Amino acid sequence: MEVVQEVLKHGSTHSVRAAIRSEQKSYNLVQLIASSLDVHNILRNKNMTQNVTKGSSFKGINGTGFLCGARIGIVAKPSPEFVAGIFGTWLSGGVAVPLALSYPEAELLHVMNDSDISMILSTKEHQDIMENISTKCSAQCSLLPAVTSMPVNIDCQEPSSTEVTLSISSLMAEIDSSKEIRGDDPALILYTSGTTGKPKGVVHTHKGIVSQVEFMPKFSVRGVWQRWRESYPNDGSKNDEAITVFTGVPTMYTRLLQGYDGMDPEQQSASSFAAKQLRLMMCGSSALPSPLMKRWEEVTGHRLLERYGMTEFVMALSNPLHGARKEGTVGKPLPRVEAKIIMEDGTETTSEVGELCIRSPSLFKEYWRKPEVTTESFIDGGFFKTGDTVTVDDEGYFIILGRTNADIMKVGGYKLSALEIESVLLQHETVLECAILGLPDEAYGEIICAIVVPKEDAKKRAELEVKPALTLEALTSWSKDKLAPYKIPTRLYIWDSLPRNAMGKVNKKELKKLLGA
Ligand SMILES: Nc1ncnc2c1ncn2[C@@H]1O[C@H](COP(=O)(O)OP(=O)(O)OP(=O)(O)O)[C@@H](O)[C@H]1O
């Protein structure tokens, strides 16, 4: 209940102000909370209380709220309905499981079966698909009610303060009547990207969520550039609802640059101008290669602020807002986050290479139904072992060398970081994207394999000349003065694209299996 109570507290003071803007409409907290209560009533009227008590198809955990911690799947694009769906679930004592629309059916079913979803709440546009899928995992389905938006001209029809106080207190009365939900109870199960195996359900508590906020819009290259240009037309004016902060994953910035390169000079200039006006641009979720960071700065004037996070604790390390944003690093621990590096022998280091361990107020509670994995993931003192190999520079900025079991290659006695080699190859004029992985080898333990996606113009040239866009010989000779001899790839594949998951990450474990076979 803690999260909802926090929202209600804000609702009492900021209820008439817009809390969310979506597709040119605004929604205030009273509207969101009222809609959450509708969701609460839908859940209540579905006879779920009875099901929980009888222990039938409805599987609850703990004894909190009338849903007793049953899992409710939420299927909606980023919208007020999504937020109301989550709040409604929490008001009812349920655990919300956001289901990504970009997941293929098999992955969606994995998540639904793994988290044992009792009910799916979806918006109308996804109703048919979800009703079909729900039959395959015996979940019930219901529609998320549309949230009423604020009148366009809020000055004319602003609700009176009495109306607002009444709305808030009647909502409070409803909520207080449900069983108590504690800060330590599960609130949300987020699934990891599945970069290194099947996605795991990460359980976050009400208390953990109160310590942070997050929102992620749908991504479209043309849409993003257009939104920035509309925000800041190059006559120097500024739109009232201008975007001021943008955050994305490295693949998004690569795609945005591709989109930029395809524009005519006039549109390029309008786009650069608009992007320059934003206050801040951030990047995270996978390594931001230096060439990409530099090119982005040339085009938009923004030195991307790189951060490091995981589903398990959301954000932990960050370059500073004010101060040096150092390329190739993810900065230092955020306030109230503690980070330490543990070497293979279990000792702590402040300068060597080792595994990053994090302790933070936003740390998750456990992996869903994986008690052994949960136990193995923590060390004494409640520090979480991230599985990432890192080091620190002499100013205390953390450098991510990669996932220990996917990005760290053991080649003839050397431990090499795939991320470091990828960052160098991206400087090659032909290379648009690349992935480096270690393939098993009898003599060396592993050999370095590069998969390269060539840039469009290089691809076209190669097709015309009927030869590969890049050869291993050419890459080797180009790499000689940039990489130590033992870091130069000895196998090269040229592909049209890299298989990426919903977060834009490459599953190297899968690729290794594929190429090893
Ligand atoms: N700025 C960054 N630089 C390099 N790597 C990063 C950065 N930010 C996040 N990461 C990587 O992303 C991981 C966290 O991503 P996420 O929680 O989505 O799980 P995943 O590792 O992609 O998938 P799974 O845990 O299912 O295998 C981190 O452990 C780290 O490897």
Automatic annotation (TrEMBL):
Keywords: Magnesium. It is an enzyme of class 6 (ligase). Its cofactor is Mg(2+). PROSITE patterns: AMP_BINDING. Residues 68-216, 240-368 form the AMP-dependent synthetase/ligase domain. It catalyses: (E)-4-coumarate + ATP + H(+) = (E)-4-coumaroyl-AMP + diphosphate; (E)-4-coumaroyl-AMP + CoA = (E)-4-coumaroyl-CoA + AMP + H(+); (E)-4-coumarate + ATP + CoA = (E)-4-coumaroyl-CoA + AMP + diphosphate. One of its GO terms (molecular function) is trans-cinnamate-CoA ligase activity. It holds the Pfam family AMP-binding. Residues 420-505 form the AMP-binding enzyme C-terminal domain. GO terms for biological process: fatty acid metabolic process; phenylpropanoid metabolic process. Its EC number is 6.2.1.12. The keyword NADP does not apply. InterPro entries: AMP-bd_C, AMP-bd_C_sf, AMP-binding, AMP-binding_CS, AMP-dep_synth/lig_dom, ANL_N_sf. Belongs to the ATP-dependent AMP-binding enzyme family. This is 4-coumarate--CoA ligase. It comes from Oryza meyeriana var. granulata.
